[in-house]
Amino acid sequence: MMRLRRSHLICCAASKEKMAAHLSYGRVNLNILREAARKELREFLDKCAGSKAIVWDEYLTGPFGLIAQYSLLKEHEVEKMFTLKNGRLPPADVKNIIFFVRPRLELMDIIADNITSEDRHHSSRDFHILFVPRRSMLCEQRLKEQGVLASFINIDEYILDLIPYDGDLLSMEYESAFRECYLENDQTSLYHTAKGLMTLQALYGTIPQIYGKGECARLVANMMLRMKREFAGSQNQILPVFDTLLLLDRNVDLLTPLATQLTYEGLIDEIYGISNGYVKLPPEKFAQKKQGEGSKDLPTEPKKLQLNSAEELYAEIRDKNFNAVGAALSKKAKIISAAFEERHNAKTVGEIKQFVSQLPHMQAARSSLANHTSIAELIKDITSAYIIQCFPIKSHYVNTYIEDCIAQKDPLIKILRLVCMQSVCNNGLKHKVMDYYKREILQTYGYEHILTLNNLEKAGLLKPQTGSRNNYPTIRKTLKLWMEDANEQNPNDISYVYSGYSPLSIRLTQILARPGWRSIEEVLKMLPGPHFEERQQLPSGLHKKRQQGENRTTLVFFLGGVTYAEIAALRFLSQVEDSGMEYVIATTKLINGTTWIKSLMDRPESPTQ
Amino acid sequence: QLKESRQAVNNIRRLVEEDDDEDDVERVSWSGEPVGSISWSVKETAASSQRADREPAFPKISTDTPSISRSQSGYSLSSLFKGKPKVGNFQTFSDALTDSSVRLYAPELRKPKSEYKDYVSDWSPEETVQRLQQGKAVSLERFRTLQDKLLLLDHAIAAHDGNVITAVLIYLKRTLCKEVLFRELESRQTALRHFIHYLSETQNQRLLLELHRALGRAEDAALLQYKEHLSITDENKRRDFLKNCLSLPFSAEDLAHVQDHYTLLERQIIIEVTDRQAERGGKVEIFQKFPRKALILNMPLITTLYYCCFYHYAESEGTFSSPLNIRQTFKISEKQYFVTALAARAKLKAWLDVDALFASRNWLGFTRKKSPLSFQRVVDILQKNSAPTHVLQDYVALVDDGELRLTLAQKHKCHDIVISTYRDMKDRQLLLGYRGKVVRGSAEERKIDDLLSNPQIRWKN
């Protein structure tokens, strides 16, 4: 009854690191990708013979944490680890100092400062740099200008394009991808995407079918096909794991991330922000109050929790609509209580022994339940004013609502989400309305936000109405985006993830699987960018002979970001019994409306606002 | 349902109190990462090295790195160009790169065939681009003619690698005259965007403005220049800079906003100087009673209005700090003005001012309360500023919707309203029930008793 997958977390301090088991539960074993990344890391470390200290660009510890733990580094003689900062390096009796950094000029200046402050006479330490995810000529040039380039024995790159996040989820953690693609017209992130997909194909076989929608999708597919030609000669002999790749531009569906995600995981992300699989929560609800103890030392630091499918309870509830989480938790509580009650039935020594042996697992389950009950309580306390829902309302009411929100000085990002949502749904705003909003926003939040408003216009999130017809109602009706009676408890449609609104991106994915895009040609033409289909030739002998009833696997790649609610909707589709399709999700970055809009702002809000 | 699970959790906790040794189950440090994770170990190993050296052990060694913020965007390659690299010596890249050692690849994972031809030196544009992508030594100097250079650029664009496109652009920037470069970029939009991005990251404002002008993108150029004000900290310099911006070719609509921005800062500077003196002089009562917590400089307009409603409410329309003058100058909407003034006066508990805000006289000379805001919101604002019941009561009474009025009255303990509503509903039971909620022996209780014993009321129950 109580299979607890948490057990692998227990011994992470042990010398031999276990596999990240949750990565291999899914349809596709993503541990292979993780292992490949670890192998490369080990090889680099072994290149620097002898004892080592790593100096970390702090940002990288998050993504690297998904690949390896300290024990792996320790096995390869990493004795010390520091955070990169100006001044002299801390003392460490090691042969090698390795800098793990992003290729950014300001970090090069810090490294140069470290090296010039080093005591040349007493130190014979070797220096190395590992750039993540790529080397940059400009950075090396900067090191040269600072006169330290010659101090490095090794300069290398560690290509971390696609990071396995969970059993069915890959992310590049490339935060600025949307801004670069749609605002700055910089396609570097697409190049990395194509590279990442080539790596994936090297490990999991050539993907025979590629579909796509959007400008960026087209570019990525082109790059992949070209890179494949460059590999020509060395044919990939791996039996394909993925049947189909679907590339989707974020700007095909600008609306979805603007609404507040209403799944459990989505709300945690909206309210507290999940970063590299961790969330930081206000500590009050998590304090362990032992009996007789006062509340004197309540912790003040936020409580950090890891969230992934390794935790059985979380895997069960993460994708539920929040309104269904309470019931699931109380059901779980009953099961766990019953398990603990079993001890009264344990009479013989053997039975007691058995009970005791299960105790650690039961306690893990109990603490998991405690944590999620606390989180659910925290979320419940957040007022409904926080939620931005996507529903058909008369624009007159929307105008008044937004006006009131501004008058109340609600957070600017909330206002921007609302205004953009109104614009996207109506194919633009009336000139008068747009001018009014702009004026109110600038007066209330500061004139410098002229820049932000301009960016939103460039990205197409905000625009004045032109004479052209508003296609949105047609798109909405054809794709059944608004469902009147969403069943939150026992969903029968993907619209449950936004309590009645189904993400357009996922509807497109669903229709592609059945009955196919040909049925919605008209709507596809109304959405921005081309749609296309490509086939990649497989070597003979690698064509899959499908068993009857065997599911097909589609990799859906969201260019410019994906929300947890969209992921939940895809997981829902994978689980629908007769869908015949399972989905693995990849993206440039896991986003929510707030982080997304923030990435488009020219001067992020100060935290006090 | 949440309560159920909370209860279960607590029960079980008590049950297993004696062997609640959680560290055995889940090795997670309180504030942080699971024990053994990388970010946890960074702190651990750093701390242990400190201890070894008998230096005072700072518990959080890794926190003070203001230069690299965690929240900064990911490893974006197009944002590599922060700072001011010296441009113009691009050819040195090649010898910089030859220093580095042979690179190790994961076995056959990312190694296209073309990479084996390492010993040729006369690279075609295509090969050059590939080598640039692989971070290998390559010289661009052999591309001498304009045609060659453009061919190289087009190959770089086709590769979609921002790093490479930028590298080629830097070479072109050094070896071509501006006019030719701008002209050629105009027909290559991708390269153009990369060039713009590169110039703005390296803060080469002058060339950037020239570029925008040459391409007839006046508005972009204007916004770009305007953006620079964010990096000016001295308020007087910032004001002068904004004044200069007024001559830039903004769209009419943006120009109006920038004009307002300038006017606002100019005023804030004047107000700040005057008020600082008044505060130091110690003669103005309001500054003594409510010392200012922050400077008004660079605050948004509505915040400034609030400040003026707080400290300068009664001033005549002629002064810069008069709320009415600010409302006029910046054409603040009635609703915004109203909300702001209401909040500021309520904060000061100036209930007479609050009252006056609503006063409107009809042609017969009767006064009645009017508001551009729903009275529900008014009550909300007043209550947030801890208005006393007798003040709240007046506004609760004005809420149109009867049901809502009753709810608000109950919530804010406006007994009179509740009592008279029940009386009007002729609901004896409810009134009887409410009797238990008022203070014993109070005027309200007497009022209820009077009503209940009034034989003239026909109760419905």
TrEMBL record, chain A:
Keywords, sorted A to Z: Protein transport, Transport
Coiled coil, from the record: none
Gene Ontology annotations for the cellular component aspect, listed alphabetically: late endosome membrane; lysosomal membrane
Gene Ontology biological process: protein transport; vesicle-mediated transport
Membrane-spanning ranges: none
Record flagged with keyword Kinase: no
Location, primary (coarse class): membrane
Cellular compartment(s): Late endosome membrane; Lysosome membrane
InterPro entries associated with the record: Sec-1-like_dom1 (IPR043154), Sec-1-like_dom3a (IPR043127), Sec1-like (IPR001619), Sec1-like_dom2 (IPR027482), Sec1-like_sf (IPR036045), VPS33_dom3b (IPR043155)
Membrane topology reported for the UniProt record: Peripheral membrane protein
Protein origin, superkingdom: Eukaryota
Family of the protein in this entry: Belongs to the STXBP/unc-18/SEC1 family.
Official protein name in the record: VPS33A core subunit of CORVET and HOPS complexes
The organism of origin for this protein: Astatotilapia calliptera
UniProtKB/TrEMBL annotation, chain B:
Keyword Glycosyltransferase: no
Bias kind Polar residues: ranges: 41-50
Region Disordered, annotated ranges: 41-70
Protein name per its UniProtKB record: Spermatogenesis-defective protein 39 homolog
PANTHER family noted in UniProt: DEFECTIVE SPERMATOGENESIS PROTEIN 39, SPERMATOGENESIS-DEFECTIVE PROTEIN 39 HOMOLOG
Gene: VIPAS39
Location of this chain's protein in the cell: Cytoplasmic vesicle; Early endosome; Late endosome
Transcription as UniProt keyword: no
Gene Ontology CC, one term: late endosome
Domain of life: Eukaryota
One GO term (biological process): intracellular protein transport
InterPro entries tied to this protein: Spe-39
Keyword annotations from UniProtKB, A to Z: Cytoplasmic vesicle, Endosome
